[in-house]
Amino acid sequence: MRLLIAGWHGQVARALIEAAPSLPHIKALAAGRAALDVRDPRSIERAFSDISPNVVINTAAYTAVDRAETDEEAAFALNRDGARLLACAAARRDIPVLHVSTHYVFDGTKKEPYVETDAPSPQTVFGRSKVEGERAVAEVNPRHVIVRTGWVFGPSGRNFATNILASANASEPLRVVADQHGNPTYAPHLAALLLDIAHRLAVERADDVWGTYHAAGSGVTSWHGLATEILARACVTNDTEPTVVPIASSDYPTAAPRPKNSTLDCARLYERFGLRLPPWQDGVAACIARHLES
Length: 294
Prior knowledge:
It catalyses: dTDP-beta-L-rhamnose + NADP(+) = dTDP-4-dehydro-beta-L-rhamnose + NADPH + H(+). The chain is of the alpha/beta class and about 290 residues long. Helices cover about 40% and strands about 15% of the residues. α1 packs across α6 (about 185-205) and α5 (about 160-165) packs across α7. The longest helix is centred in the first third of the chain and has 21 residues, at about 70-90. The radius of gyration is 19 Å and the shape is globular.
């Protein structure tokens, strides 16, 4: 299978780039903006001509949630228009596209976990741009799988886990939001799942796989719970173990509102593909092990 990965710097893209070479049945090429600008049709055409992929995974996205509130044009150019151009190029070649999306398509007011059939109701520019990207992909390429995920973290780069570890030795207690809940998702776990799905899309021609799926770490916690688990696993000490103080969302204002409930129901993914991501605590353990090795 020849796989084109659109994107380079994000958590999921880096995990895909790391994992793909270990799979002998996959020949993958990841292309960042210098080699593949999804906003530029000519750049897309060159990439398809050079690689001749069987499947495309689109991780390219504008993900600066707060900055998007004042940078709407750039967010939509990448998350909607770029997604459309890439999916359209794949459709012209009858190539399936695996498109990564987000829990931000929902407003977070539902009490139960969100299922794929829940109506999107984004409350941020980022969320609206991702909803429009989903719709664009589905509109131009019938052979699409859209995977919504959330709370992605990894052992490197800038993300919640590395930020918590970097702050662990501060003299002041860590103040972390405790009234937002979701499924923490370890980027390498998600990457392995995406590669599995991509391989199936390349070798199976079943018509019942297309559509939208939720894929996130098993189990639910708050940001405070995730921070506490990270520090407990890391055994970080500075005379005493860092104190993690639970705070309300109102105590940590952001330009873009965060959903109170980001929990995703991933049952459909298991029913169709037999795939389920490990418990989020396993992801934390793997993340900390990698971090301590570096």
